[in-house]
Amino acid sequence: MTSFATGMRRVGAGTLRAISRVGFAARFFIAVLLHTPAALRRIQLTAREIYFAGVLSLVVIMVSGLFVGMVLGLQGYDVLVKYGAGDSLGIFVGLSLVRELGPVVAGLLFASRAGSAITAEIGLMKTTEQLSAMEMMAVDPLARIVAPRFWGGVISMPLLAALFSAMGVFGAYIVGVRLIGVDDGTFWGNMQASIDFWPDVTNGIVKSIVFGMAVSLIAVFEGYDAHPTAEGVSAATTRTVVGGSLAILALDFVLTVFMFRGLGHT
Amino acid sequence: MAGATFGYDRRRPVLRGIDMLVPRGKVVAIMGGSGCGKTTILRLVGGQLRPQAGSVRVAGQSVPDLDSDGLFALRRRIGMLFQFGALFTDMSVYENVAFPIREHTDLAEPLIRDLVHMKLHAVGLRGAAQLYPNELSGGMARRVALARAIALDPMLVLYDEPFAGLDPISLGVVGQLIRRLNDALGITSVIVTHDVYESLKIVDYLYFVSEGRIIAQGTADEVRASADPFVRQFVDGAPDGPVAFHYPARPYAEEFERATP
């Protein structure tokens, strides 16, 4: 009974901690939004973060997109050809990438590559008292450090997702058209005829923006809230990757449900 | 500072009714063992923490009562040197010193350049302007941080352990810089440190803090001549005295009795 009570107390304490942390993150998000005008007035700060979060992620995003597209081309053709629908490979690959795989996989890679780097950087700045030094110089770290990194991530993410999808389609084209022999015109023509900018592409864009906001917020929050020790920064970086990835997958489901209702499927 | 009381946890106050006066233009040291609340005093002065009781006034302004804008306006007149410099690692020495000038003024770049070089020259590191923090020794980093702390010609500079981890030469250099800059620029300086020998050479007045209270104070000469057991232990570096060598524990013999079956 005692151990049961102890267990319940732990669950209760953990739940309270989690709720309190969510509340703190929400207030932090509002504070970041309030500091956004000040940060955007000095656009070069955000441009620098777009370079670090976006440009430096290009290689991993493009290479991953290429391989994912090539695998989709192979697997997709293998299944479609059994039903005599090998010519639909372009539609299958295009829809998969634009609606789902582009935003989701690019988001997961973004959380691992850029999200972890943002958390580690802010966490180390806190550990080495750089954030305190900034505060004592009457410079608000939320405006100077956090908001530019947040918006750098939010702006980079849809662009990276678009590049991921484009590279994926190119990978599928190499495998499907060049290696397997699907007709060139059929591949592109079917894709063009069946994928609409509204709602297919826009849904993908909306998803990638939402994922970008979620991952960037988690990354800056975890860095800012990290315990100022080596262990604390390490744990915060891990939380960013795990939390960011789970947030992407959960949000993807929620968004997909709403988007399919919009498409009239349910 | 009058009757300032503060605790990160309300049940265990770090500071208990601190009364302290720092006259304009003087160099004042706050001394005490590690964890006695010295740095917390600096954080109260800088407004990073608010006292739970008592008052903290800087240049006639009550720091805890200032709103965010007021606090930032006050901080523009305060420089702070952090324990390990806290230089921005993604910026060069030049950019570090230019940082507060760029943030708070609209000066033209040639003027900023001249100001930065003047500040770096004052700490003897004009030639290191293009280096990055990871290329500096501990003493150099501390001097760059000092140049950054005085970049906006503050009225008050707070030093958090400026001597920690320095070799004897760097220690002397930093100590003399603090004194010279204080006198030359008409600054007021508050130094939190446990380096008693270096401090006695440069300060006008010392406060000794232990367990959150001021237990002794005086000029450098008064401290040297003091018979107070705590001051003597601190000045002489005695391992045991009012500050016990052993962390509180149950009797030693009892420890063995418990271990024996």
Q: What brief labels describe this structure?
A:
heterodimer, A: 266 residues, mainly alpha, 0% strand, B: 261 residues, alpha/beta, 6-stranded mixed beta sheet, globular
Written overview of the protein:
The complex is a heterodimer of chains A (266) and B (261). Chain A has 266 residues and is mainly α. Helix content of chain A is 88%, strand content 0%. Chain A is globular. Chain A starts with a helix and ends with a helix. Chain B has 261 residues and is α/β, with parallel strands linked by helices. Chain B is built from ten helices and eleven strands. In chain B, the strands form three sheets. Chain B has a six-stranded mixed beta sheet with strand order 7-8-9-3-10-11, with helices on both faces. Chain B starts with a strand and ends with a helix. The mean pLDDT of chain B is 88. Chains A and B meet through α6 of A and α2 and α3 of B.
Q: Segments of chain A where pLDDT lies below 50 for 5+ residues?
A: none
* Termini separation of chain B: 55 Å
Order of helices and strands of chain A: HHHHHHHHHH
Using only CA atoms, what is the Rg of chain B? 20 Å
Q: pLDDT under 50 segments of chain B (min length 5)? A: none
For the termini of chain A, the CA-CA separation is: 48 Å
Total count of strands of chain B: 11
Strand order of the largest sheet of chain B: 7-8-9-3-10-11
Number of helices of chain B: 10
Q: Radius of gyration of chain A in whole Å, from Cα?
A: 22 Å
**Average pLDDT score of chain A:** 93
Main sheet of chain A? none
String of helices and strands of chain B: EEEHEEEHEHHHEHEHEEHHH
